[in-house]
Specification:
- The chain is α+β, with helices and mostly antiparallel strands.
- The strands form six sheets. An eight-stranded mixed beta sheet has the order 6-9-10-24-23-22-19-12.
- A hairpin with a 2-residue loop joins strand 22 and strand 23.
- Helix 4 runs antiparallel to helix 6, helix 4 crosses helix 16 and helix 14 runs antiparallel to helix 15.
C-alpha cells in the first residue's frame, strides 16, 4: 500500500518494519503529554499505532494543538519500543512511529459524546443522534464488521448448496403478514398506494412456480412494529430462501448446516473460548409440547428446568385454591428445581415478591426433605398426592417444587416466566452455549377473542397437515400446519413453512378465516393465478440476520449490531426522519392531511 495518505494502515507495522519510513493516516484516539515527549494513539479501521513526537521536532506544536478524533497524516521512521514499554494488547505494540511530518486533514470540534472511555453511560438517544461517532467505538465497530462477515458466510454457504440469489421488488402490494405495512403513495395513480414488503413471501413462491428450484436473498423487510430488545422498528434483514419439491425434512436438511456452520464459525467472537453449538440435526419440539414443557414457543434450552402438568395431584384435594381452578377447567403446572431446597428462606421470599410484581398472587412452593414436604402449601401435599407429585416431576429430597395454577394460557405463560427466573436465580443457564431447536406442528388457526372469529395463527400461506380433507372434516382449531420456527437461546431466529400451492386449499383455508372467494382473488390474485398453471410443492424459511449477529456478538439489544438504527419510537435521530413534507410535495402526491388533535400531556 502506498499513496499520498498512507504507506501502511494503523494495524500493519511490525518489528520487521523497524528502520523503514512509513506514512499513516487516521484518527487521534488519545494523546499523552510526557513533557519532552508527546504520544498519540493513531487509529484507523485496521488498528492502532503509537506515534511519538519529540519536543524538539518541528511538528510538536501541531501535535500539541490537534484535538482528539481529528484526522491526521503522519510520516516518520518506524522504531522499536523499549522492552519496558511494549504493549502486548496491541498488534503493533512492539513498535512506534517517530513523527517527522504531520498534516492535519480535518480538525475535530469538541465531541458531543465520548468515543473512547471505559463503561460509557451515554444515553442511547445521544448515541443514535451521533451514530457516526458511536460507530468509532471499538466494540460497536467490531460488531458491524462481524455483521458483514456473517452475511458473507451465509451467502457463501447458500451458494455452495446450489441456491441462486435473486432480488425481489421493494414497491409491491399489501399482504397480511401479521404486522402493519409501510405504505408509499403513488404520484401516477392518485389515491393508490404501494406497500413495502413485510417479507418477499409471495415473490419467492412465484419464483418456484416460475421453475427456479432454489432461491435465496439477503432480504430487507419492512414492518411498522413497536421496538423490542430483539426487534428493530421499521426494517430488518433476513436470509430468505425457498425450495421446490421438498418436504419439511428437506428444508431442515438444507438450512441446518448453513446456520449451524455460521454459529460454529463465529462462536469465538469476542471470547477466548468458543461457545458450544448444538450439533446437527437440531432437536424438533412440537408446539404443544413447547408450551407445556417450557412455557413458551421460544424455549431457551440452556436452562435445564422443565415444567410438568400436575393437575391430577390437586384434583379433589383440600387445597381449594388449586382444586377449584382444576375443576373450572384450569391447570396446575409444576417446576422442579433440583437441590434448591438448601436455599435460604430469603430466596423463596424473593421469588414470591417477583411473582407479585408480575401481577400474580405469589409463587407457591414446597421443599422436599426427609421424605416429606415443607413450605406454605406442604400440608396439602402428603401421602399419595406427594408420591404422585414426585413420580410426575422426578423430584427428590433436597429439591424444591414451584407451582403455577390458572387458566391454561395464563398458566403456561407464567410458568415459562417462572422457569426463566428460577433458572437465572440458581445460576443454571449455560451461558457459553448456543442451543438451537426447531418448533414444529404449529396450529393452523386460532380463535381471536377480540374479533370473535377464527383467524390464522402463523402464516396464512402454509399447507395444513392433512390438506383439503383436514380443512373440510376437522375442527379448524385442531388442525396443525406444516409450519416451523428455529429458536436459539430463547430468541426466535426463523419462521418458515411448507407452502399451500393448491388454489382449492387456499380458498378453503382463507374461507375458514373469514375471507370470501372474491376477497382472496382481489388480494392474492397474482399468486392464485400462478398456482392455476402448475405449481410445484415448495417450502422455505427466513432466518433473521440481525438476530443471528446479535447472538454471536453477545449483545442484549439488536441496535448494537445495526449501522444506523432508529430509536424505540421509530425515529431516525441522526437524519431527522420521519419528517413533514412541504405542501407542494403533498399536492404532487395527491395527499391531504387529517392530523389527530395535539396530545394533552
Amino acid at each position: 500500500m502506498s499513496s499520498v495518505y498512507r504507506t501502511h494502515t494503523c494495524g500493519a507495522l511490525r518489528p520487521q518494519n523497524v528502520g523503514q519510513e512509513a506514512r499513516l493516516s487516521g484518527w487521534v484516539q488519545r494523546k499523552r503529554d510526557h513533557g519532552n515527549l508527546l504520544f498519540i494513539d493513531l487509529r484507523d479501521h485496521y488498528g492502532v499505532t503509537q506515534v511519538v513526537v519529540d519536543a524538539g521536532s518541528p511538528v510538536f506544536k501541531t501535535a500539541e494543538t490537534v484535538r482528539t478524533e481529528s484526522v491526521i497524516t503522519v510520516t516518520g521512521k518506524v522504531v522499536a519500543r523499549d522492552a519496558a514499554t511494549v504493549n502486548p494488547r496491541l498488534a503493533t505494540g512492539q513498535i512506534e512511529l517517530d513523527a517527522a511530518d504531520m498534516v492535519v486533514q480535518s480538525m475535530a470540534e469538541p465531541l458531543p459524546i465520548p468515543v473512547h472511555i471505559e463503561n460509557d453511560t451515554t444515553p442511547e438517544e445521544l448515541r443514535l443522534k451521533y451514530r457516526f461517532l458511536d460507530l468509532r467505538k471499538d466494540k460497536l465497530h467490531k460488531n458491524i464488521v462481524l455483521r458483514s462477515q456473517v452475511i458473507s458466510s451465509l451467502r457463501r454457504r447458500m451458494i455452495e448448496q446450489d441456491f441462486i440469489e435473486f432480488q425481489t421488488p421493494i414497491l409491491t402490494a399489501d399482504s397480511p403478514e401479521g404486522a402493519r405495512s409501510y405504505v408509499v403513495p403513488s404520484r401516477l395513480h392518485p389515491g393508490k398506494f404501494y406497500a413495502l414488503p413485510q417479507a418477499p413471501q409471495m415473490f419467492k413462491q412465484l419464483l418456484m412456480v416460475s421453475g427456479f428450484d432454489r432461491y435465496f436473498q439477503i432480504a430487507p423487510c419492512f414492518r411498522d412494529e413497536d421496538a423490542r430488545a430483539d426487534r428493530a422498528p421499521g426494517e430488518f434483514y433476513q436470509l430468505d430462501f425457498e425450495m421446490s419439491f421438498v418436504t419439511q425434512e428437506d428444508v431442515f436438511a438444507a438450512i441446518e448446516p448453513v446456520l449451524g456452520g455460521v454459529f460454529e464459525e463465529f462462536a469465538g467472537f469476542g471470547r477466548e473460548t468458543p461457545r458450544k453449538v448444538t450439533s446437527l440435526p437440531f432437536p424438533r419440539i412440537p408446539y404443544a409440547e413447547a408450551l407445556l414443557t417450557y412455557g413458551t414457543d421460544k424455549p431457551d434450552l440452556r436452562n435445564p428446568l422443565r415444567i410438568v402438568d400436575v393437575g391430577e395431584v390437586f384434583t379433589g384435594s383440600d387445597f381449594k385454591v388449586f382444586a377449584s381452578i382444576v375443576a373450572a377447567g384450569g391447570v396446575v403446572r409444576a417446576l422442579r428445581a433440583p437441590k434448591a431446597g438448601s436455599q435460604p428462606r430469603s430466596f423463596f421470599d424473593k421469588l414470591n415478591s417477583w411473582a407479585q410484581s408480575e401481577g400474580k398472587p405469589g409463587l407457591g412452593y414446597i421443599v422436599l426433605e426427609a421424605g416429606a414436604a415443607k413450605g406454605p402449601i406442604a400440608k396439602f401435599v402428603t401421602g399419595d398426592r406427594l408420591a404422585k407429585l414426585k413420580a410426575v416431576t422426578g423430584a427428590e429430597d433436597g429439591d424444591a417444587v414451584f407451582f403455577v395454577a390458572d387458566k391454561p394460557e395464563l398458566a403456561w405463560k407464567f410458568a415459562g416466566q417462572a422457569r426463566t427466573k428460577v433458572g437465572q436465580e440458581l445460576g443454571l443457564i449455560a451461558e457459553d452455549e448456543f442451543r438451537l431447536c426447531w418448533i414444529v406442528d404449529f396450529p393452523m388457526f386460532e380463535y381471536d377473542e377480540k374479533a370473535k372469529k377464527i383467524d390464522f395463527s402463523h402464516n396464512p400461506f402454509s399447507m395444513p397437515q392433512g390438506g383439503l380433507e383436514a380443512l373440510e372434516t376437522q375442527d379448524p382449531l385442531t388442525i396443525n400446519a406444516w409450519q416451523y420456527d428455529i429458536v436459539c437461546n430463547g430468541i426466535e431466529l426463523c419462521s418458515g413453512a411448507i407452502r399451500n400451492h393448491k388454489p382449492e386449499i387456499m380458498y378453503k383455508a382463507f374461507g375458514i378465516a373469514g375471507y370470501s372467494k372474491e376477497e382472496v382473488e382481489a388480494r392474492f390474485g397474482g399468486m392464485l393465478n400462478a398456482f392455476k398453471f402448475g405449481a410445484p410443492p415448495h417450502g422455505g424459511a427466513a432466518p433473521g440476520v440481525d438476530r443471528i449477529v446479535m447472538l454471536l456478538a453477545d449483545e442484549p439489544n439488536i441496535r448494537e449490531v445495526i449501522c444506523f438504527p432508529m430509536n424505540q419510537q421509530a425515529v431516525d435521530l441522526m437524519m431527522d426522519a420521519p419528517a413533514e413534507l412541504p405542501p407542494e410535495k403533498l399536492r404532487e402526491l395527491h395527499i391531504g392531511l387529517r392530523l389527530p388533535p395535539p396530545r394533552k400531556d
